[in-house]
Amino acid sequence: METKKQEEKKIQYIICRVCGYIETADNADKPCPACGFPKTVWAEYTPRKLNPTRKRLLDLHLHPIAVHFPIAGSALTVGLPILGLLVPYSLGYRLFDFAMLVCLVMPLLVLIGGISGYIGGKLRYKTTTAPVLKFKIYLSVVYFALTLIQAYVAYSYNVTAGNALVIAAIGALASLCAAILGKKGSHLFAGLFGPYVQG
Questions:
Q1: Reduced to 3 states, what is the DSSP secondary structure of residue 31?
Q2: Which stretches of the chain are DSSP H helices?
């Protein structure tokens, strides 16, 4: 009985086997606050030891925050031109102008996301040569190139009814790159078959 109590005291963190949420062990009698599953989902979790500087930098979550902007931008470069074709001209040309603005900032957003991902990879894994990380770097270059092409077309010819579908098609390819990058990023944390699944 005493040994069991000592073991319970040693457990500091628990992880949800369903969604991967990490919580302090004193909340083991509560449902998971992230996915709502009952307390039976908790498993013991031992965090990896990190030096304080690396931990502070990783705790900023710069890359996960930075990647939301290009993802949203890519979706806008698909939706705005198509919507501009569907609405009356008085509104459509404003949507085309907004699409052009988004196209022009997209390369910068993708560059910031890529750089933050590279730094995050170095901090978290101490390497960027692992297969998934290398794939993400290559795909980020493709994503960046697509946004450069899109920005060039938008800047050189404006976004109009005549090239709206071209802009949207490039945006769709860029969005596909963003989706694959996000999926591969989730594999880095969760493995291939789901978030932190332990059984």
A1: coil
A2: 2-10, 52-59, 62-66, 68-86, 89-125, 131-157, 164-190
Give per-residue pLDDT as tens, 24-79: 889 999 998 878 888 898 988 887 776 787 778 777 778 888 889 999 999 999 99
The candidate with the shortest Cα–Cα distance to 172, out of 42, 97, 77, 90, is 77
**Rounded to two decimals, what is the model's pTM?**
0.76
Query: Whole-angstrom Cα distance, residue 114 to residue 121?
Result: 10
Nearest to 140 by CA among 128, 153, 126: 128
The span from the CA of 62 to the CA of 56, in Å, is: 11
**Are 91 and 51 spatial neighbours (Cβ–Cβ below 8 Å)?**
no
Reference 117, options 182, 164, 168, 175; nearest CA is 182
